[in-house]
């Protein structure tokens, strides 16, 4: 598993704990991550995501709620809502991560830790957020240009499955 993919997985686990048990759970979750994940880069990326989500939580929840018609964010499955929060944070704030990668990684996390139906649910919401918010911004660079189409391949083994967002992960 690539470093950023592993970092997303760790971040999801930490966000899950904080969502269920409150902010007091964060320190324990970080300690578990330090013990279980030897890769410092994966842990650093996880921390970046967790801290970013926590700092922008109200904005992320408003964006998700505005997009997820007929869904109250508090009634979503804990995993689903945290996958959406994390990916929305990546879409809005992590300009070094191509939107398709953020969305595809979220779909895979949702399917791995929630249900198969989560993939379509997450893809639909994140694609709308991408279209409304990200596609209206200046391009993220030629190497990361967007195709203007859907957010991710319709099948989970699409062109981005297993891909990660930066060449730095290869080292």
Radius of gyration: 15 Å
The average pLDDT value, as a whole number, equals 82
Largest sheet: none
Report the count of strand segments: 0
What's the arrangement of secondary structure elements?
Layout: H1 3-21, H2 25-36, H3 40-55, H4 57-67, H5 78-93, H6 99-113, H7 116-134
Helix pairs in contact: 1-2, 1-3, 1-5, 3-5, 4-5, 5-6, 5-7, 6-7
Protein architecture, described:
- By secondary structure, this protein is an all-alpha fold.
- Helices cover 63% and strands 0% of the residues.
- It has 7 helices and no strands.
- The protein has helices spanning 3-21, 25-36, 40-55, 57-67, 78-93, 99-113, 116-134.
- Helix 1 (3-21) packs across helix 3.
- The longest helix has 19 residues, at 3-21.
- Mean pLDDT is 82; it is low at 141-171.
Summarize this structure briefly:
This protein is mainly α and 171 residues long.
Q: Which properties best describe this structure?
A:
single chain, 171 residues, mainly alpha, 7 helices, 63% helix, 0% strand, disordered C terminus
